[in-house]
C-alpha cells in the first residue's frame, strides 16, 4: 500500500472513530435529558420514588408524576427528533444552510391548515389535525420553492429564505384573522400556536407514530441522494441520481415529520435550524451520519428546553416554544460566528 493510500485509510479510520465517539456522547446526552425530564419540574421527585411509582409500589404523588412526565418526555423526544431530522433534510434538498421548517414557513402553513380545519370544518380529532397539518406543510413547501425558483439563478438560498419568511408572515397573519372572531376556539388555539408538550399523553402520541415512522424512514433513506445533491444537480445526475425523484422523496419525508410534530405540539421554531448546524460541526457533512445525529440531538434539545421551561417560572411553567426561541437564537449566532460553517 502506498503512503498516500495508507494516509487516507488512517484519516478515514480516525474520522469514523471520532463519529462513533460523538454518537456515544449524543446517546448519553439524550438519556440524561430524559432522566432530568422525568425527575425535575414544578415539584422535584426523587428518582427512586419515580421508579417505585412506575412499578406501582409507592404513593399517589410518584404515580402521578410518572403518568404525567413520562409521556411528556416521549412526546418531546419524538417532536425534537422529527424537527431536527426534517431541518437537516430541508437544508440538503434546498442546499440552503438557512433552511428550517420555521424559516421556510412550513410549520406556519401546517398550523394554518389545522386552524382552518378546526374553525371552518369542525375538525376535532388528532388524526384529522395531522392530515390537515401534512397537507398544509406540503402546499406551503411547494409554494415557497416555486416562488423561490422564479427569476435568474433558480432557487437560491437567499430567495428561498426570503420567500419562506414572507410566506410565514402571511400565513401567521391569516391564521390570526381566522382565530380572532372565534372565541370558542381562540384560547386553545393561541396556546397551541406558542408550541409546547405540556399535557401530552400516550393517546396523543399513538396517532402520530405511523406518520413519524414513515417520515423518518423516507428521510433516512434519502441520505445517499442528499450527498449527491450537495454536489449540484448536474453532478448528481451524472453519478446516477434521479434528481427530481430524490428531492421529492426527501421532501415528502420532511413534510410528514413537520406535519405530525406540528399537529401534536404546535409550530416549534429553531430546532430544525440549530441542530443540523451543530451536528455538522461534530460529524461533518455526510448525510449518512448527519441525519441520525440530527434526530438524536433534536430530541435531546427539545427535552432539555422543556425541562428549562418548567424550572424558569416555578411554580408555573413556560411553553417550550418560548424557550426554544430564546435558546436557539444565540446558539445559532454562535455557530455562524464560528467560521467552520463555511464548509457548508
UniProtKB/TrEMBL annotation:
Give the source's domain of life in one word.
Bacteria
Q: Where is the protein localized?
A: Cell membrane
Work out whether the entry's keyword set contains Transmembrane.
yes
Transmembrane stretches in the record are: 20-40, 73-90, 102-123, 129-148, 160-180, 200-221, 251-275, 287-312, 318-336
What are the leading ranks of the lineage? Bacteria, Pseudomonadati, Pseudomonadota, Alphaproteobacteria, Rhodobacterales
Entry keyword annotation includes Cell membrane: yes
Q: Name one Pfam family in it.
A: FecCD
Per UniProt, the keywords (alphabetical) are: Cell membrane, Membrane, Transmembrane, Transmembrane helix, Transport
The record's listing under InterPro entries reads:
ABC_BtuC-like, ABC_transptr_permease_BtuC
The record describes its membrane topology as:
Multi-pass membrane protein
Looking up CDD domains in the UniProt record yields: TM_ABC_iron-siderophores_like (cd06550)
The family classification in the record reads: Belongs to the binding-protein-dependent transport system permease family. FecCD subfamily.
Protein known as: Iron ABC transporter permease
Amino acid at each position: 500500500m502506498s503512503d498516500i493510500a495508507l494516509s487516507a485509510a488512517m484519516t478515514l479510520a480516525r474520522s469514523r472513530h471520532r463519529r462513533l465517539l460523538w454518537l456515544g456522547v449524543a446517546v448519553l446526552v439524550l438519556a440524561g435529558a430524559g432522566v432530568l425530564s422525568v425527575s425535575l419540574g414544578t415539584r422535584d421527585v426523587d428518582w427512586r420514588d419515580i421508579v417505585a411509582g412506575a412499578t406501582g409500589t409507592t404513593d399517589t404523588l410518584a404515580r402521578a408524576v410518572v403518568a404525567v412526565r413520562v409521556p411528556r418526555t416521549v412526546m418531546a423526544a419524538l417532536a425534537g427528533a422529527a424537527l431536527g431530522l426534517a431541518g437537516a433534510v430541508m437544508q440538503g434538498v434546498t442546499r440552503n444552510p438557512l433552511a428550517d421548517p420555521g424559516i421556510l414557513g412550513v410549520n406556519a402553513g401546517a398550523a394554518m391548515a389545522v386552524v382552518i380545519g378546526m374553525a371552518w370544518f369542525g375538525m376535532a380529532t388528532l388524526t384529522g389535525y395531522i392530515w390537515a397539518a401534512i397537507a398544509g406543510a406540503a402546499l406551503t413547501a411547494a409554494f415557497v420553492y416555486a416562488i423561490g425558483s422564479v427569476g435568474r439563478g433558480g432557487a437560491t438560498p437567499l430567495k428561498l429564505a426570503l420567500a419562506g419568511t414572507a410566506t410565514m408572515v402571511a400565513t401567521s397573519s391569516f391564521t390570526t384573522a381566522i382565530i380572532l372572531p372565534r372565541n370558542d376556539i381562540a384560547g386553545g388555539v393561541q396556546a397551541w400556536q406558542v408550541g409546547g408538550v405540556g399535557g401530552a399523553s400516550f393517546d396523543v402520541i399513538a396517532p402520530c407514530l405511523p406518520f413519524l415512522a414513515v417520515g423518518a424512514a423516507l428521510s433516512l433513506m434519502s441520505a445517499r441522494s442528499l450527498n449527491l445533491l450537495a454536489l449540484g444537480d448536474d453532478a448528481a445526475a451524472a453519478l446516477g441520481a434521479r434528481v427530481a425523484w430524490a428531492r421529492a422523496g426527501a421532501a415528502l419525508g420532511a413534510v410528514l415529520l413537520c406535519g405530525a410534530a406540528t399537529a401534536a405540539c404546535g409550530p416549534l421554531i429553531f430546532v430544525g435550524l440549530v441542530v443540523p448546524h451543530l451536528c455538522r460541526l461534530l460529524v461533518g457533512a455526510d448525510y449518512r451520519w448527519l441525519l441520525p445525529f440530527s434526530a438524536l440531538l433534536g430530541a435531546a434539545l427539545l427535552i432539555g428546553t422543556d425541562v428549562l421551561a418548567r424550572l424558569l417560572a416555578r411554580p408555573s411553567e413556560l411553553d417550550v416554544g418560548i424557550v426554544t426561541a430564546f435558546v436557539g437564537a444565540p446558539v445559532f449566532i454562535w455557530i455562524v460566528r464560528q467560521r467552520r460553517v463555511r464548509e457548508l
